[in-house]
Specification:
Elements (H helix, E strand, L loop, with lengths): L1 E12 L2 E12 L3 E5 L6 H9 L7 E7 L2 E2 L5 H7 L1 E4 L11 H6 L7 H10 L4 H4 L10 H15 L3 E5 L7 H16 L3 E5 L3 H4 L4 E6 L2 E7 H4 L26
Parallel strand pairs: 3-8, 3-9, 6-7, 7-8
Antiparallel strand pairs: 1-2, 1-4, 4-5, 9-10
Helix pairs in contact: 4-6, 6-7
Length: 247
Amino acid sequence: MNSLEIRNLTLIKDSRPILHDLTIDIWQGHVHAVIGPNGAGKSTLAQTIMGLDGYKDFEGDIVFEGTSLRNLSVHERARLGLTLVFQEPARYEGLSVVDFILAGSKDKNEDVVRRSLDVVGLSPSRYMGRAVDKTLSGGERKRIELASVHAMRPRLLIMDEPDSGVDIDSVQHILTVIQELKKEGTTIMLITHSPEVLKWADHAFLLCGGSVVDKGTMESMYDYFNGKCAPCTHIGKPDKAPLSIKE
């Protein structure tokens, strides 16, 4: 069963096509990775799915659990259960940690906060009395944002470079959150440049030039990170070497 169906998606910004006739099926309850070189359209895809400003005017359609997202606002998509986590943690200066974590949760019980903080490796006794402010490190902000996602229980979670700028311990807690949400039926899309994050996925799509050029299991897609890309018809393809993660 498909959770998300992207059909012939084309997005043009500043007279340049960023996504081109892109079609993807995202399976319910699976973890999908979206990989590809810089400028391939990975983050643009995530922002278009969420309907952020500047990413609403597209051709084709995006259907989530049978409902077209074309004319829905960001808030309406969020109410359907879509959530996007950016590379940089969200900043809500002065909001209490408890209120931040419970903001998107249907259950407003503080036990939810304790459980979610435990999952991301933060002591409830140390953090429930704090605010989301400059006293928190970037890593702490990232974990608290993950705790809020865990409490939210989204239907579809999109994570853009989830391991960006975090330490090894935080990476393990990110994986724990993904595993727990997957067990509960959340569908997850990981936008990544990391071969380690790819290992978390059941299935992957390789994007180049705004189009899908390959797809398959995590194992079948891993060669991309060893410099072995799919046959490329993109106008900017190199003459002698395959596209690699550094390009």
